[in-house]
Amino acid sequence: MGTADSVLHTERPNLAVVQGQLVEGPVLAAGAEPTLVGWGNLARPGVEVLSEDLRALTAGRVLSRGLGRAYGDSAQPPPGVLEVAGTVLADRILGFDPDTGLMRAEAGLSLHEINRLFIPRGWFPPVTPGTQFVTLGGAVAADVHGKNHHVAGCFGQHVTRLLMRVPDGRVLWCSKTEHPDLFLATIGGMGLTGHVLEVEFRMDRIPSSWIWGETLRVGDIGEYIGLLKQSASEWPMTMGWIDCVSKGRRLGRGVLFRGRWATPDEAPSKLATPFSRLTVPIMLPSWTLNPVTVRAFNAGVYWKPTHRQKPVHWESFFYPLDKVRHWNRAYGRKGFTQYQCVLPDEAGPEAARRFLEVLTSTPGGTSFLCVIKDCGPQSDAMLSFPTRGISIALDIPVRTDTQALVDRLNEATLAEGGRIYLAKDSFTRPDHFRAMEGERLDRFMEVRRRWDPDLRMRSAQSVRVLGDPAGGQDRDI
Amino acid sequence: MGRSLARLMAARGDRLVLLGRDAEQLERSAADLQARSGTDAPVLTAICDLADPSSFAPALSAATEGFGKLDCVVVTAGLFATQDQLEADPELALRLATIDFANTVGFCERARAVLLGGGGGKLCVFSSVAGDRGRKPVVIYGAAKAGLSAYLEGLDHKFRAQGLQTICVKPGFVKTGMTANLQPPPFAGEPDAVAARVLRAIDRGSPVVYAPWIWRWIMLVIRCLPRFVMRRIGF
């Protein structure tokens, strides 16, 4: 099975070169139109071409895709192009220095695999999003953030170097000193500056495999924000779930989780090993999540037993939703979108309440889950999402009025001087995005055009939000 | 498949030599296995190409020199192409039959001598369920694998008493780089699960292992079907 290494060589450079295969283009069941989805399950025409050899795979392709956990159209090909380069088979660790924690690996390696291998040895990724099923390439492209953003910043701030295939076809390293413009545009650049082939970054030492954590119940949004900001000075990791279905006095009641790595004395003596997972085996009907079940879930979250400080399993702390594989199927075939914005501190402590009031007063504004996190200062990466303030994330089932809802939320975000997270987005209009990003977007586009004058690297999202040209095979390299 | 299996072996502390065509790729894979094993034990590499029989002897002696003695040789390499591609390109068909049958046997003959010279050991070779019955979608690939499976069975009969255990792996459809652009059929396996099953078979010395397991029963049915049925179905 399979050739021992690398690809089978062919004379045709534009061929989909896949290990052991002479296949031109995808081979699929007759009659089926191939589609690709983001995590929100909104389908578009597309095919993922996989190979263990990223150098061969990315040549001539317009976009890379990792584990497909971006909710919207970030990792879907632009209209007129079918294929994206799937990186997940390229998952080799190329070096790890146990003295410094410096790791170099291929872009398709997932945080899940890193956790499985390195938590027992006392190492953890410096920053992790709410799922471990993301690749390093995806973590760089979205410049992911986690519960520790207020102290550790984004993933990109721990990246030392990137090996990239840039749009003109060259393969080169970039860092803060080598092609710094490319480096800072690529982190958070949603894959639009080139293909990330290898990532070098620094892992964190951890004192145990357990989190010393605490859960607190909070009565309303004002109390929640106050406690979130107050916790930031003592706790490196904070976040919470908010009930955003209840209105009025109860608006924003919820639970706040805070934690830090447990010291060896505090931690149980046994290693915290990964959980086994449940699976949602089939797409559930779209009415599974309706106002009644959403209300029940939110009440359940609020009344979930809280606990005082104690050791918590790292997987339940960082990745509660990873316990159920394919949980996105609960939203059914119509799919869902996530809306995530950051509201800056300058907007004042009441900004979150004003935003949630817009949400609850708009048709379709019932979110299954609402996560509010604290954000530290903005990084140097040009399009990196977080900035000092609070981040609000909502899961919204797609209905006919979802576009209108997202438009209203974007106007509310704009009014507070905030911005949205592209890794979650499916509906934002280009004028809203431009108004939120302003000069940051100009600077990003300037660097992008410097490296890619013809805008070869594109995604469905970049065509929708940045106004990139759609285009068929004639635009291909 | 080879990568998944090697990772399982490295994780439990086995010492490994990787054989392959491309020195740079071998170095990268060796670095990966070493980082995953978390030990200082080096992972060695040697150039070997199933398309080039003159590379077999040097590769095997380099591997033997590295560790003094080999306990187990695993052959996962092979060439795959669809029946349509092979029918359209007779040279490719000849190349596939040569690599997957003649040259693989040639390599195994040298590995057999090395293992027996060291007092025995295990020879694990990836054949395929495609070799269990002549079938329309795998006429040529299946024929090469049928020959390979027959060779491995004979080898096992003849040399098991002398300490050489032969393990013939018959994977069904596994989602690997080789099959990345094919539509997975029902019962397609994940490489890591298949690798775990193969490793267990190696440890036990099972002469034949189907992976995923259900293919054993699927192929039992296929082998029992009369010719007039096989002529009609597309499987």
UniProtKB/TrEMBL annotation, chain A:
Keywords, ordered alphabetically: Oxidoreductase
Q: Which InterPro entries match?
A: FAD-bd_PCMH, FAD-bd_PCMH-like_sf, FAD-bd_PCMH_sub2, FAD_lactone_oxidase-like, Oxid_FAD_bind_N
Q: What is its EC number?
A: 1.-.-.-
Q: Which Pfam families match?
A: FAD_binding_4
EC class, as a word, reads oxidoreductase
Question: What does the record give under GO molecular function?
Answer: FAD binding; oxidoreductase activity, acting on the CH-OH group of donors, oxygen as acceptor
Q: Which residues form the FAD-binding PCMH-type domain?
A: 29-206
Name the chain's protein.
Putative decaprenylphosphoryl-beta-D-ribose oxidase
UniProtKB/TrEMBL annotation, chain B:
Q: What family is it from?
A: Belongs to the short-chain dehydrogenases/reductases (SDR) family.
Give the matching InterPro entries. Answer: NAD(P)-bd_dom_sf, SDR_fam
What is the top EC class of this enzyme, as a single word? oxidoreductase
Among its keywords, does the record have Oxidoreductase?
A: yes
Taxonomic classification = Bacteria, Pseudomonadati, Myxococcota, Polyangia, Nannocystales
GO MF annotation terms: oxidoreductase activity
Taxonomic source organism:
Enhygromyxa salina
Keyword Oxidoreductase assigned to the entry: answer is yes
Q: So which domain of life are we looking at? A: Bacteria
- Supply the EC number(s): 1.-.-.-
Query: Which protein are we looking at?
Result: Putative oxidoreductase
Q: Name one Pfam family in it.
A: adh_short
Q: Which UniProt keywords are listed?
A: Oxidoreductase
Give me the Gene Ontology terms describing cellular component: membrane
